[in-house]
Amino acid sequence: MNSREQILKLLKQHQTNKTPLPKIDTTALLNVNLVEKFKFEFERVGGIFIKTAFNRIFDEISKIITTENLRKIYAENFDNEINAIIKNLQVDEIITQPHSYRQISIVDASITSCDFLIAETGTIVFIHRDEKFKSAVLLPRVHIIIAKEKQIVGTLEEVFSISGGNFDSIFLITGPSRTADIEKVIVQGVHGPQKVYLIIV
């Protein structure tokens, strides 16, 4: 057994019990309209919020394609109805089964689902799974998320409570990527998409 294996063995020996989740204050957003709260917080950090009916998803995405001049898109696998909508979008290429991160890096936009929406901060939550490409969330200049109203929760604590914390990692995205490292000027899209659209049905 080498030193690395010894260290991993020791770590596993001390991970027999999970750390208990904190108690949640369920009264903080008790009388708040979670959709409106999420919309306010999401738009405040530069996100673009679109609430629509299911039969309008094609039209809304088509508007984004025209506005952002999108020609090549990556789309994750949704249910049959949404897959059919995406298949009919007027673009040059739609990638649904990427074979490498490089393929994701050259698309104009990605269309993905998410796991939760946090009203308190306008944050979109992605729970990491092997079949999901992390790069689809980070690399394209435009990210389009399709979600359902029932995915909105009040706080981050509720995400852990509902999921039980049974995941290796999560992404928390609050608006488009931005930095002010250079001359204190805010620049969007340095560490992630320049635009983040949320279509909620």
Overview of the structural elements:
- The chain is of the alpha/beta class and 201 residues long.
- The chain has one domain: Rossmann fold.
- Helices cover 29% and strands 22% of the residues.
- It has 7 helices and 12 strands.
- The protein has helices at 3-13, 34-44, 57-68, 80-87, 101-105, 135-138, 156-163; strands at 48-51, 72-75, 93-95, 109-112, 116-118, 123-127, 142-147, 152-153, 170-173, 178-179, 187-188, 195-200.
- The chain has a 6-stranded parallel beta sheet with strand order 1-12-7-4-2-3, with helices on both faces. Strands 8-5-6-9 form a 4-stranded mixed beta sheet.
- Strand 2, helix 4 and strand 3 (93-95) form a beta-alpha-beta unit.
- The chain is globular.
- The mean pLDDT is 85.
In short:
The protein has helices spanning 3-13, 34-44, 57-68, 80-87, 101-105, 135-138, 156-163, and strands spanning 48-51, 72-75, 93-95, 109-112, 116-118, 123-127, 142-147, 152-153, 170-173, 178-179, 187-188, 195-200. The protein is α/β, with parallel strands linked by helices and 201 residues long. It is globular and about 55 Å long.
CATH class type: Alpha Beta
Helix and strand succession? Answer: HHEHEHEHEEEHEEHEEEE
Strand order of the largest sheet: 1-12-7-4-2-3
Uncertain segments are none
Brief descriptors of the model:
alpha/beta, Rossmann fold, six-stranded parallel beta sheet, 7 helices, L-lactate dehydrogenase complex protein LldG, NagB/RpiA_transferase-like, LUD_dom, FTHF_cligase-like_sf
